[in-house]
Amino acid sequence: MPSIIIDSIPLDVPEGTNVLEAARSIGITIPHFCWHPALGKAGACRACAVKMLEGPVKGIQMSCMLPAQDGMVVSTTDGEAVAMRRAVIEWLMINHPHDCPVCDEGGECQLQDFTIAGGHGIRRYDGLKRTHVKQYLGGYIEHEMNRCIQCYRCARFYQEYAGGTDFGVMGSSGGVYFGRQQDGPLQSPFSGNLADICPTGVFTDKTARFRARYWDYDMAPSICPVCSLGCNTVPMARYRELLKTTARRNDKVNGWFICDRGRFSNTAVNAPDRPRRALVDGKPVDMAAALDSLLERLSEFLALNGADSLAVVGSPRMSLEGNIMAARLREVVGAETLCYFGDVLHAERTLEAVSLLNAENSASQEDVRQADLIAILACDLQEEAPMMSLAVRQAWRNGARIFVVGSECRLDPTKLHLYETEDVTSLTDVPFTEARNPLVICGTRHTGLEAIRAVALPGVKFSFILDGPNSFGCALLAREQGAVSFSETLTGGRVKGIISLEADLPAGLPNEIRVLAAADWLPTQLMKRAEIALSVTSWVEMDGSYINNEGRAQRFKQVMRPGLPIKGETPELHPPRIHRHDPPGGDMLPSWRILSELLERLGDERSEEDRFGEKCKFLGSLDAEGGGIMSYERNRNQ
Ligand code: FES
After folding, report:
1. Residue 193 and residue 168: Cα distance in Å, rounded?
2. Residue 525 above 50 pLDDT?
């Protein structure tokens, strides 16, 4: 561990740490553009100059290029270093557009921050600025090459980190250009990260362009609900409209990046046809009245048919809190049936996979990135969990061998090939014993129980790709509560009515089954059929928790208040002539709170906290920015 001194502060840093990172670790920010924790150094921008006062190297040095060594004494504030950094910023700004104070990247632009922090304000060069033609890069990313400072982060991310081949750096002499050979949509399923990684505004999120400044956004730490990996995000909203989503760093999970599917999935939240009012027999009512009606109908139903004819149906796309409360409702009304999965195969496979995982063998995305041998079976990673395929690529870049087992998951030739693979027919053909960190990734969508069990090999970590952001949580609850799949309840023929919560039930629900109530934020068929339709908040309009595919419980926070986006077409509300506390279209609650209020009406006197039960009390204090907690560890600590 090298011992160094930075600005008179002595510190020991791990071998291989560069001086820039060492300074960051004690809260000293050295300006930098090309260096990025996930991409490493490039030495391209020359903005990170420091003065080496003592040690093996002396004088002005680029701190990102210099590994910390014993005896180094570094000054970040030395006059020569400050003058060098100031000169670099001035050179970078020579060709930079002068709209900096009003540019749409303002507030989230590293170049703007370091320019202002360095005190550069007056342009001394009076020559012409070098300009470029910008390109059409598809519907997601806006290109503005004139803002480029040639840090190469975009090309390094797109080609090296993410394996893209249709974008890169071109040019000759002074004309360096980052783009495609011709206009056209970016092909990489990770292209949205260009907007996060560019330290200026060359690449911005086109879907949110000119809608808000950074400081205008409502934002909060959140979790992507699109697949089971639980990538960490920061959704950004304004005026009750979800405008964009950026990646949030979690070294164990997604690292610094997210996939395009998670990033550009705002539409459903803002959709005009989203349920925004409670309906009783198709007539709009307020939420309290809808819950009163539900209580009435539920009591009648139970009196007429008995509790064993009612099924309470939760869902892997609902928060853990909602699914816990679904179990409470089942308990309080004495219903015989509780379901968390629609389909019996989905339920069986998920429960089997979760039962095999424990703190020792469960693989995180970081474990995948660090593996030296990976066997993939029964899944199309780019389709089912894109970020997992990006993690596999990082392992492959570090020299890992990647085996594709069996014929179910042949790589789709139409997709980007992120890594080279070797084909084998069965797991027994994979040379696990030759590897130090072997790992198996297995899908659960198309594989049988035997194949899932076969993955649990001694000394091998494994990761199952599940369906839904909270499949793991639902599997834990299903085992604890003795829940069955919904398709099984249908074969028994006893169920005559259901209360469904954010559930995607199999098509063909028999007509004779009453949908007493459905709660959802998506306009599902079940919501249309329900006697009482309850509009609920989406994940960005509430606090909640999911457990991801590795067993990591993670909390997401409310980003925006529920309600109609101001931009939406609400002519009947304009101009507003009445005072109201709630925004229009905002009469909705999280599913768990709807259940909590229903339980209260049913006479359950436990406080909300008690209703979550002893095991899940920790959810309330789980820090959304704390990286999550493994559900195995929590159980062990109790
Ligand atoms: Fe060191 Fe760019 S950050 S040269």
Report:
1. 14
2. yes
